[in-house]
Structure formats: structure tokens, C-alpha cells
Amino acid sequence: MSGTFVIAQGGGPTAVINQTLAGALTAIRGRHPGIRILGSRHGVRGLRDGDLVDLADLSESDLARLARTPGAALGSTRDKPDARYCELVLKGLRAAGADAFIYIGGNDTAETQRIISEACGGAVACVHAPKTIDNDLVENDHTPGFITAAEFVAGAFAGADLDFRSLPGVYVGIVMGRHAGFLTAASAAWRMDLEGAPHLVYVPERAFDRKRFVESVRAVLSRRKRCIVAMSEGVSDKEGRSLVEGLVAPELLERDPHGNVRLSGTDLGQAVERILAEDLPNVRARVDTFGYLPRCHAGICNETDRSEAFDAGAFAVQAAEEGSFSVALQYDGKVTRPVAVSLSAVAGKTRHMPEDFLLPDEDQISEACAAYLSRLLPGKPAFLPPFA
Amino acid sequence: MSGTFVIAQGGGPTAVINQTLAGALTAIRGRHPGIRILGSRHGVRGLRDGDLVDLADLSESDLARLARTPGAALGSTRDKPDARYCELVLKGLRAAGADAFIYIGGNDTAETQRIISEACGGAVACVHAPKTIDNDLVENDHTPGFITAAEFVAGAFAGADLDFRSLPGVYVGIVMGRHAGFLTAASAAWRMDLEGAPHLVYVPERAFDRKRFVESVRAVLSRRKRCIVAMSEGVSDKEGRSLVEGLVAPELLERDPHGNVRLSGTDLGQAVERILAEDLPNVRARVDTFGYLPRCHAGICNETDRSEAFDAGAFAVQAAEEGSFSVALQYDGKVTRPVAVSLSAVAGKTRHMPEDFLLPDEDQISEACAAYLSRLLPGKPAFLPPFA
């Protein structure tokens, strides 16, 4: 390669997306000394609009600081380019003299790479490097960004459990996850003991039923005097309607200019609070919306996540020397390592939680799920249970 | 002293309320070897109901684990005993042969100690040991539990700032604080640079105005393309009405059986989302409710807070040898140390943020506030700003 590497970051940022950028930069400098390295700002927008930054002069110490900084150093985008947009991106790649384009992001980002790689017929090596807190990329055992977000959620529920053993009541933590429940399931990763939180887990993969929810909360309350619930933002009823649509009178729903119901954590939180207030009156209840905190909190970062994210970026450079690929983190029973898979295997596809990650008759995670979480998050704090 | 020490924890738990318990236990064992030590479960309820645990046999390793466990190991209570209830508590203290009663909690807990100490005429040394994430105890430079909660909030906003530099929009973080804005102001403790978050800070000490809020957000957005807002749960308008009362049609307000409007973070979050959707349509906006996370998240604990909380508990034992007091953390310009003050100086009183902690014409913290926060939270992460 003699031309230029271009790197960009797309989709929701994570705590370690800059580790992947740093890994790629480090590998490029090591394997292609002196080659030009450009960053495209705000994902492929930068290539489309000519908004590029020269990354070659980044000092070692700045690179180390960048690697440990949450959020996307190159900015990000939610744009999902169609063929026309991709043509403009390709134009930008050609104008930059790009040999290779590394795009760090989720399944939409992989799809963008797939379109561009087909459009340019191999002239540019288009590599997708994985990233998402939702853990919903196929071909991956887990994805960069997930473990740190999961550690945040695990710590939040371990703490909430103790808080509600102190002052009993109902607590609902609303966790991001439109399609996949992995991050919500992570609430159980650091469960203290058999009666620990979360007592109930609601994920997008299973239809939500209001009556069953209330009965379950009531049952847990009578047994344990408290009830801690983990709930995904993406839960919906058996008709596929989001919870808020099922619960709020139509004229009160927030709608965007197209008439689509606006979904957000706060809407769901409100809906859940109303259910509890109506069906379990006089029970102390609190609903918190974690929102973006698991993906950006400056105080939480998992070292395994950091190094895997870095390695994924470094591997993306090696992959780019061979052609267009998606980098996937795969686990062989002993170690996790990045491998190259085809873009079409990953592009636009969503991984859901395996069915056996939930118990069949309870809204609770299974042993299989607990084992998976324990492998990724072994650092459970050694707390002392309160005095009985 | 030859009888018994009784210890209890009251009010909302924190990350370090068990450090205070551990400090007290350690000091009692050291200064009064062999004396009986009883824990009253769920605050003074345990004394009222005869629900006491023997703390003498707690091993050193369990004590160390307990100290680092969030939440209240003895359970807690929100009971605010009147004179009658206090009589029953006093009866319990006598039945236990108590020489001294150490009650760890906030200003309501101090008030309970004040009532009991007066009722028993000095027969029992009633000591209040400080605790609150709200930092609203008078006589205290800052309170055990505050620094850890503030570190959580600081890390959340430092991260959100970077997240929203990646994908611009409006972000509102709702922080607990019914009466005092210290915890909300802590959102600025780790501000990255002059254009860092939070851009707007709304606290209970200043009347909230919807129009001014929207204009401020609009101004920040046009200047910075993003706007990060920190808002206390306790903000109210100039009539003293909570935000949600001013914004939501009366028939839609959640009410308790007494007809009181139920206030919660989610209600406020919803109200703020509605304001933004109505007055700034088509602007990407996200509202998260931190709720209890700052006080219990298992992954965040500040070492200064830990040791100060421990020392406050140890000092409470010394104070109890002299009589009935409130322990306060005071700063002499160089170091923070616990001192004994009168119970009536602290009982039932709420400290508000000093007026000079907010800029007069902006909804933003002042240099004085920034200096205070910097003294308590010096560990600002060394992040690299995104590429411009």
C-alpha cells in the first residue's frame, strides 16, 4: 500500500471506540511507516463533505490519552447511506487517494462498508471494525463497548439491590436495548446471592404482558419485601407495540412530525411508574432511566474491553491488507481474538439473545446466560450481605 | 462506660454509610474492649420493635468487607419519630442497657437524636454521625456520601459531554436534590474545557423559568451544536410549584391517596422532554434520570469519602464518651476533620448552596463553586478533546 488509510467512527459512541481507533493508528504506523492517515469526521459524512483530519502527527502521549477517552474522537453519525450517498463517499475516498477505509461501528456501519466495497469493485479495501454496547453483531461472541456498558449496568443493579435492602420497595432500572436484551441481562452479572437483584428481567426478545408483570412484582414483594426490575427500552407487547403505546392514551403520545410515536426511556419509565401506581398503590416505587450512562460514564471502563477494542482496530489494518472484511471478536473456548469474516455476513443483521438465555417460565436469566456474563465480567465485588 | 453501645443508620443509604459504621465499631473495640455492641435494624425502628443484632463477633475480614459495601448494613428507615415514638425508642435503649447511641444519618436523624437526648436527660449519650449525598447538613464543609455521589455525577457529565460532541443534540441529566443543588452542581467538577458540559445548571435554590430555559438551550445549541443540562429533581418555579405541576394538566398529575402531587425524577424528565419537543421541535434530545445511581453504584467509590466517613464514625465514639453531640466534617483551609457540635445546631436544618456558587446572570456555576468542587474531586480524568 502506498496511498492513504482513511478511518471513521459511526453509530452510537462507546467507552472504547477510541481504543479501536488507537489500535488501527498504531498498527498502520507499525506496518506502513510514513503512509498518510486521514480521519473522516462524523463517520462517512466527512468523506462526503471533505471534512477530513490528518492523523499522522498525533503524538504517542496524545494517542494514549485519546485511547482512554470515551466518545468518538472523530465524531460520529447516524446517517445510513443509500447507494447515492455511498457514491459520494466513494468519490471522497478516491479524492483522498485511499487504499483502505476502516469504518468502526455497528451493523449499519458494516452495511455501509458492504455497499461501498461492492460499488468500488475492490479498488478500496473496506473494512468494518466492530462496535456496539448492544452486543447485537452476528459472528461476534461479544462486541467492543459491550463489556464496559455491561459493567456499568452490573454495578448499578448490585448497588440498587443493597439500596433496596436498606429501604425496601420496588425499583425499575430502564436499560438501553431496542432489539437485543444482552445489556439488560447484564444487570444480573454481579448478583450478590440467590435472592439478589434483579428479580425480574424484561427484554425485547420476549413479549411483555402488563398483568403478568404486576403479578410477578407482587409475588416478589411478598416474598422479599423488595423487587428490583431490569427492563429494556425496547420491550413490546405481543402485538409488537411498544409499552408506552399500549399504556398511554393515543392523544397523549408524543409523536414526531411523521406521526410516529416517539419512544424514549423517559416515556417508558413514566409508563411503568403509572402501572405501578395504579396496580400497586401505596408501594414505594422508583424508576430510573440509565440512558446513555452505560456507554459514556467517565468513571467506568473495563480493561478487557479496552484491550479487545484496541486489538480489533489493529487487526482491521491487517485485514485491510487482504481486502474487504468485517472484523469479529470470536471466542474459541479459551481466548477471544479478532478474525476476519465477510461483510455480508454481518451487514444489517441483528443478533438477539439466545432463547436459552432466559428461563422458560420466569422473567429471569438462565444459568447459560449467567455463565456467559461471568466469563465476560469476572470482577464481581465482594460485598457483605446486610445483617438479617 | 460499662454497658452497651447501640448503633443505627437512618435516611437514604450512601456508598460509605457502612464506612461510618465500621469506623464506630473499630473505635468501640479499641477504646472499650469487651463492651457490648448492638445494631438497631432499620434505624430507630429496631430499638422500638426489639429488632437488634449483636455486632461484637463480626470478624476483622467481614468488617473490612462490610466497610466497602454500599447501602446500609443495618438497614435504614425514613421514619421521622415524634415525641411518642422517641419514648418507645428510649424504652428500647434502656432495655438494652445502652450508655451510648450512635445514629448515622442526615438532618432528620440529628433531630431524632436531639429529641431523645432531651427526653433522657443525659442518661444516654446520643451522638449523630453525619451522612448525606445532598451535602445539606449545616456545620459541615461537606458530608460523608457526597463526594462519591458527586464523583458519579461528575463522571456522568464528563462522559455525556464527549458523547454529545460525537452525536450532537440536547442532553438533560436529572440529578437528585430536593432542597440543595450541590450534587447537581457537581456535574461541572470534571468539565473538560471552557466549552465543556454542563452548559446549563438548574438547582432548587433558583426559580426555574420555562421560557428562559428554552432560550438558553437554543442559544447554547446555536453556538455549540449541542447542549448538556444538569437539573435537580427539586427545581420549582417562582411560585414554588414543582416543574411537573407547572407543566402537566391537573387531571394527568400523579397523586398519592392524600391528593398530594407525586414528584419523581421520571415525572420531571417527562416534563422536560415535553418542553423540548414542543418548543424545540426537530432537535435531538435525550433526558436521563440518574435517580439513586449516584448513591449506590457498586463501581464508583471515592477513597477520600471512604476515609472521612470512617473517621466520622470513629470520632462519634469519642464524642459519645463526652455526651450528646453531632459530628461534623469541618475544613480549616488545609485539612478536613470531624468535630463535635451541638445537636440543635444541626437538627432539622437544611444547608443550601451559597448564593455565590451560581453566576448571577447565568444558569451556571461560579468560580467559587468550581474551586470547592475541585478541592473535593481533584481526580479529573485526562481526556483528549475530539478532533476539531
Quick summary of this structure?
The structure is a homodimer of 388-residue chains. By secondary structure, chain A is α/β, with parallel strands linked by helices.
Characterization of this structure:
Two copies of one chain form a homodimer. The radius of gyration of chain A is 22 Å and the shape is elongated. The model of chain A has no long low-confidence stretch (mean pLDDT 94). The first copy, chain A, has 388 residues and is α/β, with parallel strands linked by helices. Helices cover 39% and strands 16% of the residues of chain A. Chain A contains 14 helices and eleven strands. In chain A, helix 1 runs antiparallel to helix 3 and helix 4 crosses helix 5. The longest helix of chain A has 21 residues. The first copy, chain A, folds into two domains: 177 residues, Rossmann fold, CATH 3.40.50.450; 172 residues, Phosphofructokinase domain (Rossmann fold, 3-Layer(aba) Sandwich). Chain A starts with a strand and ends in a 12-residue tail after the last helix. In chain A, strands 3-2-1-4-5-10-11 form a seven-stranded mixed sheet, with helices on both faces. Chains A and B meet through helix 3, helix 6, helix 10, strand 9 and helix 11 of A and helix 3, helix 6, helix 10, strand 9 and helix 11 of B.
Shape designation of chain A: elongated
- Average pLDDT of chain A, rounded to a whole number, is 94
Q: Give the oligomeric state of the chains in this entry, treating copies of one chain as homo and distinct chains as hetero.
A: homodimer
What are the segments of chain A in which pLDDT stays under 50 over at least 5 consecutive residues? Answer: none
| Biggest sheet record of chain A | 7 strands, mixed
Number of strands of chain A: 11
